[in-house]
Amino acid sequence: MRNHRITTFSDLLYPNGTLMQKGYSTKAVMRYNRKHIKAPPWRIKEWDFYQVSNDDYCLQLTIGHASYAGEVSAMLIDLNEKKTYAAKEIIALPFNRLHMPASAEHGDLAVRRKTIDMQFEVYRGGRRLRCRTRDPKTFPRMDVDIELSQPDLESMVIATPFDEDPRYFYYNHKINCMPASGTVAFGDRTIAFEPETAFGLLDWGRGVWPFSHEWVWGSGSAWIGGKRFGFNIGFGFGNTEAATENMLFYDGNAHKLNEVYVDLAAGGYMSPKKITSDDGRFEMDFEPIYDRYTETKMLFVDNRCHQIFGRFNGKAVLDDGTVIDVKDMSGFVEHAVHHW
Predict the structure, then answer these.
(1) Is residue 19 in some structural domain?
(2) pLDDT for 1
(3) Domains contained in the chain, number
(4) Is residue 73 a contact partner of residue 119, using CB atoms and an 8 Å limit?
(5) What is the band of 187 on the pLDDT scale with cuts at 50, 70, 90?
(6) Which residues contact residue 40 at a Cβ distance below 8 angstroms, ignoring those fewer than 6 apart?
(7) 133 pLDDT exceeds 80?
(8) Are 242 and 88 in contact (CB under 8 A)?
(9) Could you give phi then psi for residue 126, rounded to 5 degrees?
(10) Which letter does DSSP use for residue 165 in this model?
(11) 33 occurs within a structural domain
(12) CATH code, domain with 237
């Protein structure tokens, strides 16, 4: 049966740099060690991406690199006014100088640059995100202090190979449904995130990727019936014969899905979409609200991404057959084409 679940603790990579196990898990049972990678150093990619959102605002904090180019960025998206405010500093040739943690479940990360400071703290049961920008060319400046509660033990973890080279791999950990509290001081405004309406998301990625590829990724978290519900969907991240990264989360438990389909570009990115699954367990109408389109060009990097924010309506079916009715749930689906 497809979707092999990894339950045995092991290193992520064999001594020759290939994946020791392929598939998914709901906890980080494989140990990532950068020294075990046998691909050229400029092919290594590592990032920590946090998103905190409610129905009105979305905050995104990123520390990451593609070895020959790195980025520290803070982005605040006003979903009502359909405006994006960003502060970013590009780092040339960072390679391993950012000291990215070897696990999404422990290890702090801090970067201090000329125009932006950012710090991610991980502790038992939660996380703290702090950022301060001071670029005189960027107005308004941002001062961020957010705490995420992490009550769930289960999340989406996947180890995926690429067909282009047996030494290429993608080790990804995504955590949904983290109630968020804190503030973003933004110019003369202070935006508050409350755990009753705001959730945090972590996208933690490590790997060796081919230079060109594209993907579709979608995510959402909400309170439904007094319980935390969320989903992670996506495809295009390498060879997914062993497992997809499609998963539901409900009241702290993960529920595995197989294939999920959507064509974001068809009819234009802002046209309504239908998202379907091969087993009928994820059937959604998606109504776009805002297309946050970004381009990044530096050295060899040429990345483009449509992140479409909107509302989901439909149903999700848990492993035991329980149907979750989804109504006007906030979330996003993105289509990225990257050359990096």
Answers:
(1) no
(2) 47
(3) 1
(4) no
(5) confident
(6) none
(7) yes
(8) no
(9) 180, -175
(10) -
(11) no
(12) 2.40.370.10
Token pair of 260, please? Answer: 């999920």
Residue 19 DSSP code: B
Query: Each residue of 199-238: pLDDT tens digit?
Result: 999 999 999 999 998 999 999 999 999 999 999 999 999 9
Task: Tell me the residue length of the chain.
Answer: 340
Which one-letter amino acid corresponds to residue 171?
Y
- Evaluated on CA atoms 264, 199, 158, 339, the torsion sign reads positive
The rounded distance, in Å, linking the Cα atoms of 60 and 74 is: 6
Assess if residue 249 is contained within a domain.
yes
Give the 3-state secondary structure of the chain: CCCCECCCCEECECCCCCECCCEEECCCCEECCHHHCCCCHHHEEEEEEEEEECCCEEEEEEEEECCCEEEEEEEEEECCCCEEEEEEEEEECCCCCCCCCCCCCCCCEEEECCCEEEEEEEECCEEEEEEEECCCCCCCCEEEEEEEECCCCCCEEEEEECCCCCCCEEEEEEEEEEEEEEEEEECCEEEEECCCCCEEEEEEEEEECCCEEEEEEEEEEEEECCEEEEEEEEECCCCCCCCCCCEEEECCEEEECCCEECCCCCCCCCCCEEEEECCCCEEEEEEEEEEEEEEEEECCEEEEEEEEEEEEEEEEECCCCCEEEEEEEEEEEEEEEEEC
Query: 310, 326 in Cβ contact below 8 A?
Result: no
Q: What is the DSSP letter of 13?
A: B
Which residue range forms the structural domain that includes residue 267?
Answer: 43-339
Q: How many C-beta atoms lie closer than 10 Å to residue 98's C-beta?
A: 19
Backbone angles phi, psi at 20, to 5 degrees: -75, -35
Token representation of residue 63: 């520390």
Q: Cα(152)–Cα(212) distance, rounded to whole angstroms? A: 35
